[in-house]
Design brief:
This protein is an alpha/beta fold and about 400 residues long. Helix content is about 45%, strand content about 15%. It starts with a strand and ends with a helix.
Length: about 400
């Protein structure tokens, strides 16, 4: 079966879970056309991502003006379909954070996507995230009749469901993938009851490069390196983590924190580090490849993620799979995978003292307790987040109907 994957930007170092899903579906017999808006000029270090970029067609590579003639060709060829898509674009602009011109651009992008899908005789299109990428595939359906589905991760979709018109997108979809039960429950809030049956749980998955069948035993270290992976932004809670880390350093000087990522809050975070004289203890890596992230995970004693809002971070799964203990907040879908003192250490979000205590408690674990935590974590993630199993679920939903 030939299908299309449509993504806002692809490949992207923070979206390796999409790449894994595509490759797993291909291994199960699908022929997949990769289409993205952007990403042809991104700085990517990962060799697999470089190969993926060569396989990807880019809608905006020739510029936005190149899409205008495609719209008028469609208008002449399919006036009724274009008018229906225009009416939907107008409807989606209401209550949206983005004005009508943006939604008209999405329609131009949909015209190009329609051409690309028709040229490949694609039978289905799948998007990730319920934002503009899903709007484009939704509008393309008016032009081609090709059914669409999309995966919702959160938290962005849950922060502004009315602005994103989640209800309309769910209503028009063949099905919707939710990455956790929590995610599904949030979609239930905004979907019509008759559309609830469309919402399926398909977890993000890990491949055999992570799920190798065992995790090594570790010894209690003399000093501790904590790793925080994620975009430097408000929802990830890095500033709160640094406040907590100040407390930890006062009681244990043999600790280090690595912030792996970059983002809008980098300057503010760097100012905090200088102000509290943490330069010797804290390092910011900037954007790094997935292989570099994996290397840091293996070199670190624990991953700590103090998020205020999440879906279910893939970084948590990766850490659990290779034997790096996880300390994180019990929010959103995280407790569906992690249990406090069983396979992770959980603490309340937004609590500086609790975050610091969680790190301190981790440093006081015995070797036996540490290894039990690691083994339990591997068992949990390998059972629940195997990409071949999850891709098979997705494949079944695509084939049905």
């Amino acid at each position: 079966m030939r299908i299309t994957y449509f993504i806002n930007q692809y490949p992207q170092v923070s979206h390796t879970f999409i790449r894994r899903e595509i490759l797993a579906l291909e291994s199960q017999g699908f022929e997949i056309q990769r289409v993205a808006l952007r990403g042809w000029d991104a700085d990517i270090a990962d060799e697999t991502d470089q190969i993926e970029r060569q396989k990807t067609q880019y809608i905006l590579k020739a510029g936005l003006k190149s899409l205008v003639p495609l719209f008028f060709k469609r208008l002449v060829k399919q006036p009724i379909a274009i008018l229906k898509a225009l009416r939907m674009a107008f409807q989606l602009s209401k209550m949206s954070e983005r004005s009508l011109p943006y939604h008209l651009v999405y329609l131009l992008e949909a015209c190009q996507l329609a051409n690309l899908m028709e040229s490949e005789k694609s039978l289905h299109v799948h998007a990730h995230f319920g934002t503009n990428s899903t709007e484009v595939v939704m509008l393309a359906k008016y032009l081609t009749g090709i059914p669409y589905s999309f995966t919702v991760h959160g938290p962005e979709e849950f922060d502004k469901p009315l602005s994103l018109h989640l209800n309309e997108k769910i209503s028009g979809a063949k099905f919707v993938s939710a990455i956790t039960s929590y995610c599904r429950s949030q979609l239930y809030r905004w979907a019509n009851y008759e559309d609830w049956s469309k919402i399926k749980i398909v977890h993000c998955g890990l491949d055999e490069s992570f799920l190798q069948g065992n995790v090594p035993k570790v010894s209690k270290p003399a000093s501790y390196q904590f790793l925080c992976i994620g975009r430097l932004c408000e929802q990830k809670g890095q500033l709160l983590l640094l406040e907590s880390f100040v407390q930890l350093v006062k009681t244990n000087d043999a600790v280090k924190l690595i912030l792996a990522g970059d983002g809008d809050m980098r300057t503010e975070i760097e100012q905090f580090i200088r102000q509290h004289q943490l330069d010797r203890h804290v390092e910011i890596t900037g954007w790094i490849s997935s292989s570099e992230v994996k290397k840091l995970l293996t070199e670190s004693d624990a991953m700590v993620l103090p998020s205020f809002a999440e879906g279910l971070p893939v970084a948590i799964m990766e850490a659990m799979a290779i034997g790096t203990p996880v300390l994180t907040t019990y929010i959103a879908g995280i407790p569906e995978l992690l249990s406090d003192k069983d396979n992770a250490i959980l603490f309340p979000a937004g609590d500086v003292d609790a975050t610091s205590i969680a790190m301190k408690n981790f440093t006081e674990l015995s070797t036996d307790s540490l290894n039990q935590l690691i083994q339990n974590a591997y068992t949990s993630v390998s059972t629940r987040h195997n990409i071949d199993i999850e891709a098979a679920k997705l494949a079944e939903h695509i084939r049905q109907g």
